[in-house]
Design brief:
globular; NADH Oxidase; 9 strands; alpha+beta; 27% helix; seven-stranded antiparallel beta sheet
Length: 247
């Protein structure tokens, strides 16, 4: 038990020689987002000026109303609303160079080691399936469609059926090397911290849509990784959150 707590402490830095990280050795940094084939099927998302349905909500109200919701209305999300939620959680504010971009959430060293996948069940104008958010392009990349997706993600989440009863379920994967490139073994604690930043923004953004979400950290790692077709080593699921409209 006590050994497991060591992961949470900053004392790990005492054992790391930062002169041996790939950044210090002059290795080129990994890209801002995973590459994709140029002919891949992509969906353009509405730009910020088109978010007419997003309510202007003061911060005190948004924070005060924040709570977890597991029961969702059958009403679909609009593509406009989904665009806002994606921007709020991983949107690009400014591109700095080929390997660095400022986003709407903080990240250690601006490394942003997370990728955003979506299980889209009920989104107007969007074919049901699994998509990946492309923050640089503000587009969705269709990864695949699959029969029984709602049942499969619920099974991978230890039978938590609400993760498959949403309009869309956000699934974040970690690409550890993006953070390891700069921080070595100190990377892993801050990747977990970064995931918390992203999900809290989702909670607050949902308040502006009359929607709700619930952070989920309990799932079968191997089942969830296989479902999203990631290798489980260089990329793996770290967090998920279903989103739906509320009664």
């Amino acid at each position: 038990m006590e050994k497991g707590r060591y992961f949470l402490k900053d004392s790990i830095r005492k054992t790391i020689d930062f002169s041996q990280t790939d950044q210090s050795r002059g290795v080129a940094p990994p890209p801002v987002e995973k590459p994709f084939p140029p002919d891949a099927q992509r969906v353009a998302l509405p730009a910020r000026h088109a978010w007419s349905s997003v309510r202007r909500l003061d911060l005190i109200t948004a924070i005060g109303n924040r709570e977890s919701h597991r029961d969702f209305h059958r009403q679909p999300l609009t593509l406009e609303e989904l665009s806002f939620l994606l921007w709020a959680t991983q949107g690009i504010r400014q591109r700095m160079d080929e390997a660095t971009a400022l986003r709407t959430v903080p990240s250690a060293g601006c490394r942003h080691a997370l990728e955003t996948y979506l299980c889209a069940f009920r989104v107007d104008g969007l074919q049901p399936g699994v998509y990946r958010y492309l923050p640089l392009e503000h587009e969705l990349l269709l990864e695949f469609t699959e029969e029984g997706l709602a049942e499969k993600i619920a099974r991978a989440a230890f039978g938590q059926t609400f993760v498959g009863a949403s309009a869309v379920t956000f699934v974040w994967t970690a690409v550890p090397y993006r953070m390891e490139w700069r921080y070595g073994l100190a990377a892993h604690k801050v990747i977990a911290i970064d995931a918390g930043h992203v999900c809290q923004n989702l909670y607050l953004a949902c308040e502006a849509l009359g929607a709700g979400t619930c952070a989920v950290g309990a799932y079968d790692q191997s089942l969830m990784d296989r479902l999203f077709r990631v290798d489980g080593t260089e990329e793996f699921v770290i967090y998920l959150a279903p989103v739906g409209k509320l009664d």
